[in-house]
Design goal:
By secondary structure, this protein is of the alpha+beta class. It has eleven helices and 16 strands. About 35% of the residues are buried.
Length: about 425
């Protein structure tokens, strides 16, 4: 009997120790709120933090009665459209990758192999010392890289058909939806795109200089298809991965880089975090009754806003979120497939309509949403809800893009102060 009592007492003492020890274990010392006290998270280079909020999701064909109230969770978005200089860095990276692996094949450009692995990885610290390596002045290097170039007029230029970027993603839509597919995309902007877009017009100066000359470094890149924009976003996410690990609030965070969804684009363009503000002027680009954006002022009137073509990406003041040129300058690719009635059936939380069309699919299934209006568009196109579309493989001199990155949620004032929001 005494033995059973002692055993029971020991068991109760053990349970008491287990439960009381929880009080001294740091795992159970949960804070009342998130440790981050600011109003926004420190953003990756060139991006800004967009807090979660709601908008009236609509198109130019919608009336106020049919608009749909939706909520977007927090994300980061580029402050500006991707510039020629930024996109050239992508082209240089692809060209140097091909130069090292296909033509130079020199061990000094590769990292030392780990163990018995046969896979070789480029040592970018070494390559970047001569970046762009494909443009090296070393005669021995130039000789080996000669097959990468073609003669155009009196100049040797990169053979754009060789410059391809390969990336893998989960396919949306179609027979193999949900499976991982690998896409290979030519990365150079379309050649002669200005003359193609404007036949019977003198555009050779823009064709020959816009992407390459330093005077256009900070202008938005154009001549890039939806697929090329997706490829750039994938590369950029990998390219800044190491720097994100140095950000204490993003370290270890499983982020995604992509084009903005149509809803994210509209939300960022409006510069408002409440659907109640969607019809107000807050965050507008207007000043003294005039639009402070780059667009066509009327028939044959391209230069009255200060420039005939595109302008540097920070030429005008930013909106309330700190984002530049969400209207005018260049129209922008979004992630969404185009459907006239998409807003009626997408979710009211983080809506997006995804469809990765194959080359053999119909032209209709390859349509992607374009937003924002451009330097060659009339003022009626310059609002946050007018939408258009283009084929995913098509490029134009008036369409560019910007990137988004997933972000962590920060608690709102209602959570911090125990206040209730109005219904």
């Amino acid at each position: 009997m005494m033995k059973r009592l002692l055993t029971s007492a020991c068991s109760l003492f053990f349970l008491f120790c287990v439960f009381t020890s929880c009080r001294t274990n740091d795992v159970y010392k949960t804070p009342k709120l998130t440790q981050f006290r600011g109003k926004s998270l420190p953003a990756p280079p060139g991006m800004t933090y967009i807090p979660s909020g709601s908008i009236l999701y609509r198109t130019s064909a919608d009336s106020g009665a049919t608009s749909k109230s939706i909520t977007l969770s927090a994300f980061f978005i580029d402050e500006t459209e991707v510039t020629n200089r930024q996109y050239r860095k992508f082209v240089d990276w692809v060209a140097d990758s091909i130069a090292v692996t296909n033509y130079l094949n020199d061990e000094k450009y590769f990292r030392k192999a780990d163990g018995e692995s046969a896979v070789r990885y480029i040592d970018w610290e070494v390559v970047n010392k001569s970046s762009p390596l494909y443009n090296s002045s070393d005669p021995s290097v130039r000789e080996k890289l000669a097959p990468m170039f073609v003669l155009r007029g009196d100049q040797q230029v990169l053979n754009s058909s060789l410059l391809k970027y390969r990336f893998t993603y989960m396919k949306a839509g179609g027979a193999d939806e949900g499976t991982y597919v690998t896409d290979t995309v030519v990365v150079m902007p379309a050649e002669g795109i200005w003359s193609k877009d404007f036949p019977n017009a003198q555009m050779t100066m823009m064709d020959g200089n816009y992407f390459y000359h330093k005077s256009f470094d900070n202008n938005p890149v154009v001549g890039v298809s939806w697929k090329q924009a997706r490829a750039y976003a994938d590369w950029r996410g990998k390219e800044i991965a190491s720097s994100l690990e140095k950000n204490p609030y993003l370290k270890g965070f499983k982020y995604t880089f992509n084009l903005p969804s149509e809803a994210q684009w509209q939300y960022a363009a409006e510069g408002k975090s409440s659907a109640a503000d969607s019809s107000r002027k807050k965050g507008s680009s207007r000043g003294n009754g005039k639009l402070a954006v780059n667009f066509k002022q009327g028939e044959g009137k391209y230069a009255e806003d200060g420039s005939t073509f595109t302008l540097p990406v920070k030429a005008y003041a930013p909106n309330a979120f700190g984002i530049y040129n969400m209207a005018g300058n260049v129209a922008e690719w979004t992630l969404d497939a185009y459907s006239p009635s998409a807003i009626e059936f997408v979710n009211d939380l983080n809506p997006v309509l995804l469809y990765d069309a194959r080359e053999q699919d119909s032209e209709m299934s390859k349509r992607k949403v374009v937003r924002g209006g451009s330097w060659k568009d009339p003022g009626t196109m310059l609002n946050s809800y007018t939408r258009n579309y283009e084929n995913q493989n098509t490029a134009h001199s008036y369409i560019g893009f910007r990137c988004v990155m997933s972000a962590m949620e920060l608690p709102g004032n209602q959570v911090k102060s125990r206040r209730y929001s109005s219904r």
